[in-house]
Batch of 2 targets.
Target 1
Amino acid sequence: MAFYYKEPSHTFGEYLLIPGYSSTDCIPANVDLSTPLVKFKGGENPKLSLNIPMTSAIMQSVSDDKMAIALAKEGGVSFIFGSQSIKDQAAMVQRVKNYKSGFVSSDSNVKPTATLNEILELLEQTGHSTMAVTEDGKPTGKLLGIITSRDYRISRMTGKELAKDFMTPFEKLIYADADNTTLTKANDLLWEHKLNMLPLVDKKQRLRYMVFRKDYTDNKINPLELIDKKKRYIVGAGINTRDYAERVPALLKAGADVLCIDSSEGFSEWQKITLNYIHKNFGKDVKVGAGNVVDAEGFNFLAEAGADFIKVGIGGGSICITRETKGIGRGQATAVIDVCNARDEYYKNTGIYIPICSDGGIVHDYHMTLALAMGADFLMLGRYFARFDESPSDKVRINGTYYKEYWGEGSNRARNWQRYDLGGAKKLSFEEGVDSYVPYAGSLKDNVASTLAKVRSTMCNCGALNLPELRTKAKITLVSATSIVEGGSHDVILKDKFSID
């Protein structure tokens, strides 16, 4: 006879935190959000930690090198998606590790034959008013000139003008040697010549980097940036249970700091085989997360298999339809609570602490605080990060409103069959994800700052100044359907719903 759980599974939206005693020290500025990323023995420090409890999902529409750099600046980690060629994924990892803070690779480039109309379309798409004109239109092509909003007047031009005819030509630019210019020197040149941007070129006039005046301030306000001993940004990468023998060494060579098996279901011998192979062939210092699981039995299996952190969640993602198509999954809050209890029991018995990553089910910012209070060490977020400028998907305008494209790894668009592999044919037999849009939300930095301000404030309401304290002091209650309605605005007419003549 099948096993039946006595209690229904719940989502984060069915819970609230009860305020606890807050001392005068309990102010958001004093809250420490650092958290372990990989397992460690009691009394020791983990090899890798996060400065904020946020990682970006292993998805084509979320985590590339641009996202990884932006999130590392804020103190989190991106896991660059693995549903691409080994060469391309390794190149993304390498770009993150080679990135020099303040030195930006140009991502808005045009050929000299581009028309003003094409330039305006690119401006609308990227929001970047400064564009490099390169010989081949590529980021590292021979630099011929620069176009900014000062170089054209839309009201007095037809739109058919060519970039080469109104750009500021290379001969009139102030530039610097990419191989011999430090960030300090570049910033000095910006201020000395009253520039907004300084291009750095090599001996063949090929564009290597841009240094922007606005980034000078940004470099001073990233106190939580996550870097290694060589002051390079920390970056993760997703792997699968099929081509790990070839993919893992390429990613390690590129500089990946941590890996994660990307799978919809982690309670599988395939994951055990993969973990054993990696640790046997590349050593215990190579850190590999595994998952996803939703109960204690799944946690214990992956813990014994050697996982360095364990992801929790099946079917809770906003683009995931696994529960609809297969009837597999569990309410995210209940899954996190169950697995975190198993984690604590495992730590008590072995002295080894294995961090838990809550993956999916986050709709509102306060859900993040709930997940952390329930025991998660950090979160993996897809929809949340997909909305930002730094995600790799296109920004589109629909009925006057901007959106970002967002699709699941189990969708026909991604066709990431390895993520759903059960050892059968090498194909995606049916969809477990959808292709969708999410409202465009602007920059990662601004949104993460706002979200974490809410997390810190709620933690202070609970009397906690760090995440271990939150797990200890949190008081959590289930809420009824009626009280959920009560929790939002109700019985009023919001002013933005009508106008007064």
Note: The CA atoms of residues 52 and 71 lie 10 Å apart.
Target 2
Amino acid sequence: MEEKDYSGFTPDYIDRLLPNQIFVFGSNTLGYHTGGASGTARKKFGAIWGQAEGLQGQSYAIPVDFGKGIRKDNEVKASVEKFIDFAKQNDKLFFFVTRIGCGIGGYRDDEMAQFFKQALEVNNICLPKSFVDALKGGEINYDLDRFIEAQDSEMYTYADALNEIKEGHKQGHWIWYVFPQIKGLGHSYRSEFYGIASTEEAKAYLGNPILGKRLRDITQAFLDCNNPSAFNILGFPDVLKVQSCMTLFDIVSPNDIFNDVLDKYYEGKRCEKTIRRLGVREEKNKNVVKLSRLTIAKDCTIMLSDYDKEVKMEPIIKAIYLLFLNHPEGIVFKHLPDYRKELVDIYQRIKPLGLTERAIRSIEDVTNPLLNSINEKCSRVRAAFMPEVDPLLLDQYSITGKSGEAKKISLPRDLVTWE
């Protein structure tokens, strides 16, 4: 690999190195270098089977996988510090650090990045962009544009893929960038380049307004297809790739359309390799608490229908919740003054006897972006659901979103009924 290829960050895909360059990867404690970056290290860069740590050929192993989802931060920290000292003592070598620990190791990029803070000052260590962004306080960029670019400009576009699925017979070569899998299941350039590296990247993919919608649309077309056999529609091995894709997105968005595909075409069976790479137990994945449907009665009572529970809120809190429920696209807080009339109308349906002076003042405060009232009210919405739903599902019912961006309720709207 030539230095002009990486532009200051470790590339997502490395298949060759110059003589003085070293591939740094995450290992399990047994030194069994099988899939993902460890498999690449063994097959291409001299990693030794059974050696869990240190320099081996043109690779350097850092043990981060302790099995069964166990994390040992102190041991990882010590191993990373040992690697950084090694790099300082061998300044003639140049080290490309991969996203170690961020797959089956169970770490988020920002968590693992903290162990490498000292590496920012070492000239012969190159870190992944996600690590650098996390250490410098920036937002992690997952380069989702690589999918959009492929879907819009490759020989087989997203439109071609959607038409083929609707017709019930896949013909083109588009599977990698339309139904992406977790990284490390395949060994081709495309499977690595278009592989999803973590559940955080999968959530970002699903939250992208273009990619998320396209994935749901083509998944729905797959469900609507008259052909009852996934194998007949997709062929081999793509039938397995779609199973792994559906498993990945079912894990990050349970009780969604992806679960329906697994039930219809795969007898409810998840891709075991995907589950293992994400460190999720099959039993836990199958028995995950289900999202309840949300019913809004005529008197504006909010019911978790499948749990047979009422979610009780004060009138102003309930009005805010119903406002955001009306807008699945989300609302940017600084634009709240534009929604003041709608909020008043919702409040009057909840309290038909009329607006009190106190209610008018509360609505004015909550729609004033210069005040903190809306943040406080969103916290109270979350608190209202907290006793009624599983903590893992709380974000689905709450009003959430990044600072400066639209805040929204993530619950799929097909689970919401207005009486």
Note: The CA atoms of residues 187 and 365 lie 56 Å apart.
